[in-house]
Amino acid sequence: MQAEPIATIAHVIQLSVAPVFLLTGIAGLLNVLTGRLARVIDRARVIERDVMSGDAAEESAAHERLRTLAVLIVGLVYFLREISPATSSLRIGRQ
To answer: Which carries the bigger pLDDT value, residue 53 or residue 26?
Structure first.
């Protein structure tokens, strides 16, 4: 007889805590992506500085590295663009 109210309370606690874990996971993912984007931008600035002060051979290699970083940035932007509809359709709270 006591098992049903305890199960109901446990289910209510599960439902109330689940959005917190979801939001924490999304925040962690966004934090990692932001950190990576910042590192890419910092690296691009270093490479750009090398291009301005280097010779032709170094300049060619630096341009190739900048192209690679640009592809990475585009990939991150597309990923964030794909995640936007998924996160906007989340319903948290009362319906």
So the answer is: 26
